[in-house]
Amino acid sequence: MPKTLERPRLRDFPYLVELRRDVEERRRLFSEPDLTYFFWECTLRCNLRCTHCGSSCGPTRKDDELTTEQICAILDTIGEDFDCSRIFVSITGGEPLLRQDLYEVVAHMTGLGMRTCIVSNGTLLTPQRAARLYDAGMRTISISVDGNQRTHDAVRGEGSYVGALAGITNAVEAGFEVVEAITCVRPANLPVLSLVERGVREAGANLWRLITIDRMGRLEGATDDEFWLDSPQVNYLLDYIDQRRVDLARQGDPFDVGFSCGGFIGLRREKAIRGDHNQCHAGLCVGSVLSDGQVSACPSMPRSWAQGNALETRFSKIWFERFADYRDEKIRREGVCADCSWYDVCLGGGLHERLAQPDQFCWLERLQG
Ligand SMILES: C[S@@+](CC[C@H](N)C(=O)[O-])C[C@H]1O[C@@H](n2cnc3c(N)ncnc32)[C@H](O)[C@@H]1O
Ligand code: SF4
Ligand code: SF4
Prior knowledge:
The protein is built from 14 helices and nine strands. The protein has 369 residues and is α/β, with parallel strands linked by helices. The protein has a nine-stranded mixed beta sheet with strand order 7-6-5-4-3-2-1-8-9, with helices on one face. Helix 8 links the parallel strand 6 (207-212) and strand 7 (256-259). Helix 1 (13-31) crosses helix 9. The two termini are 13 Å apart. It binds S-adenosylmethionine and iron/sulfur cluster (SF4) (2 copies). Residues 46, 52-55, 92-93, 95, 119-121, 144, 182, 184, 211, 213-214, 216-217, 219 line the site of S-adenosylmethionine.
């Protein structure tokens, strides 16, 4: 059990009440799953080869990929079995812009009533491609910016920073309503976060999400600290986000800064920097189709957690009948969580974090060092 944060303090009670409400909702989803967030991992090909890529992507990858007809047929079954007006689709990869049929598939999703976004490295997002995505019905885009120019290019390759910021600007000019920058924070870019913010704001982003790096994909089994924040650094990051949110609100500035989804980060911080419903919902309201048609909860889960292939079995059948492991509290209560007094607001942390770093997934422990 985490050592020093065993009991809530009196001033934390309002947060505790809100989090208990959230957790009741999450527990209900164990028995009544409700698909509202759908990832399509459209390819594992990528024009870049980032050092930390959690999906091990790169220019030389060649994997089986769904054809246009196959993904559209799977989407049609989802259209028949779920209320698509409640589904937000995040198209990720690999690099989604490498798929020539992206616009056609996005238009198909829009036709079914889904709202869509892509997560992209931005370097291929020309004004023409941004306009085509907009015309296909997309209104949200997320572009990875992993530092200022020096620290971004160090992991994503020379020229990629300029390309990512141009992608942001092209999305804004095409009319996208939400243009989000995503930063994977590591020791090297932690000291330059204010420069990263300035860069993405000048390019036109209206939202900035900071995330930490997991030991998966190309970093699977890594033990060095190049991509891992230690306890003071994690505290610094969360305090930084907290302070930026306070300052922006005080200034009436609509630019929004937030933290990624994942395991419980403490009562006050959970509400102050994450907002509502952002603890891990993998397999509860979040489902995915991976590049080859396998069905999983989110693309960050190991492939071994896929529960079938949507080319062989209807997506809804897999979602409703085969996702037991995602909805099993026994698994979440194992190990360090077994006698933790926070279990009832945490439910055992973020699933992909649990699997990527089994000895270091508990955020309260990470924060305490
Ligand atoms: C795998 S990428 C695919 C989309 C696109 N190619 C990009 O880089 O934005 C999706 C997101 O995961 C992030 N990511 C990559 N490796 C990661 C890791 N090891 N841990 C956490 N996030 C990671 C990326 O920065 C990006 O924001
Ligand atoms: S993080 Fe994105 S841009 Fe980088 S190699 Fe992976 S898929 Fe490509
Ligand atoms: S992950 Fe959550 S339930 Fe598990 S030990 Fe940490 S705080 Fe407790």
